[in-house]
Please model this.
Amino acid sequence: MLTGPNRYYLEKHFANWHPRNNDRYSVIFLDMNNFKNINDNYGHTIGDKILVQLAQRLQSACADEALVVRQGGDEFIFIKPYTNNHELRAFIIFLIKSIKEKIYVDSLEFYLNGCIGVSISGRHDSALEELLRQADLAMYEAKRSHTDFTFYSEQLQQISNERSDIEEALHYAFTDNQMYMEYQPQISSECGRIVGVEALIRWAHPTMGMVSPEKFIPIAESSGLINTVGDFVIDTTFREVLEIYNLDIQQPIRISINISVRQLLTKRFRSFLNSKSRKYGIRPSNVVLEITENVFIEDLDLIQNLLQELKYDGYQISLDDFGTGYSSLSVLQKLPIDEIKVDKGFVHDILSSNQDNALILGIIGIGQNLNIPILAEGVEELEQVILLKKYGCDLFQGYYFSKSVNKDRLIDYLNNYTPFELHTHNEICSQ
Model:
């Protein structure tokens, strides 16, 4: 066995193990994040060597009375006697710390990360299979919420049922024309003109109503449907924006498109994007690819190379939801970032919260020092516009200017828009 005991070992030994621990035990389900990328980019031999070291490290982190087995692939199961939640949490935190320690293989360095789901048996409950299912469910919730670990709960089961319904419905959403695109204008603070739009996917389900992208995008990622979603976004956005360009309303505006990490890591993504750009005559220089900060928990060198290739093709790169994730100044200096988008959560309370005010100032300062333009999302009030302009923010996006609208309403908006005057004198906005 490559990494020691496996699932067969667990099933064979559990019947004798749990009575010795008064039938009170916890099940810990560990799944490594994006381990497939290591196998794809460094080969399975390197991947196997990493798993061997990881398994040894995990076994060393556990006391003798714990069962540690490899579920398969990059998944591990821990069966541990349960005493109390405080002790269990302390062990999980120690386990996570062990996982994140650097691993060296053949002169290469690897930083690993994983998500953990936890379930706890009842006082007279020894149904291991059910607890494994619960821990597995909790693990997926940890992945979805980008947390290190999650405990199973009945509420989590309800969420899981809803996610199952959404996943099933998602398979029919495109063939039944339930998906469509909306666009939210982006305004220059220098001259008040519309310089771009963010393309936002919308799902109108016949019985569930409007399903938020915050709900269905993570499900699409975990179910393997994210490329279907991403392909629809790119193809529909390019086609509809070309229609707007052909109306000669104004100089071609730029298009911002949200890109999933899983999309970015798909080998076909770059060729698909370029093929659609050529098909619809959309210049890559007019396309901004928005990535979120969770790309930093992937292989940073790989992400850097992928973004550099897209930059070489002419696309711009925007870092979305800045301040909510894992970014650092060193990462910003490494990655080819053309724009930083300040998360709307910081903008919302900028007028009343000294902390958010200071954070906005700090982020804008970072952008100015690195010569990276700053776009503020969620701008809803004139006072926010004035203050952000004063601080040096470059672009605005939010309900104060417009909510997201479909293609036809965007055309009306562009036709009737009057540049917002932020100065006492007019300036012409240059692309």
About this structure: Residues 133 and 268 are 34 Å apart (CA to CA).
